[in-house]
Amino acid sequence: MKKITLYFSLLLLVALDACKTENYVWENWTYTAVPLVAVNTAKSALPTVSTSNTSFFDLGATNLGSQEFEYVLKWEGFGKAEVQSIDVYLGFVKAPTSGNPAYPIVLSQPGGVYPSVTQFPLPSRVGASDKLYSTVTEFPKTFTVTAAQLAAFTGTNLSTVVQNDYFLFKFILNLKDGRRIEGFQENVCDEARGEVGDCRVGVRFRRK
Description:
Blueprint: H1 2-19, E1 34-39, E2 54-58, E3 68-76, E4 83-93, E5 124-125, E6 131-136, E7 141-146, H2 147-154, E8 166-175, E9 180-181, E10 183-184, H3 186-189, E11 200-206
Keywords: Signal
Organism: Spirosoma validum
Signal peptide: 1-20
């Protein structure tokens, strides 16, 4: 009886495969690596949490230009893929009039570990307004930059910055097998759900 059931199961699989009329891109999946970041929360001008991948510049402080943002960049390949280099892009974003994340950062419950909402928009892809900031080949790599340095690189006038505007770093992975990973979906980089990768990290302007 088991042999008969197995035989008919195989026939069904063959029949279903024969009925297939289209091949989908997602069927040809492969393993990739993901970028990982760790924000130095001690450098943030305002209180933050490490799981948010977010730091803050204090708009109300007289030393705004010299305030620092620091993070460490590395990667994880899970034993399936290796990274040759990471292209780091930087952009400045004007905040929308509504829909900005609450401050202080609200942690999800139960657990109180991850922010309740994403701190920056997803999906995160390099756009026309983003500029290549650095190509990293040795890891981990620490980035320490001031508000004035970020403003100069992006052509931003700090005197015109308002609440919730932000600088955002994004990452493109160049793998050792020749692949270039340019986009990551929500189920890879959503810090609100503690996902496996960190495809962007940023520093936001706020007032106490």
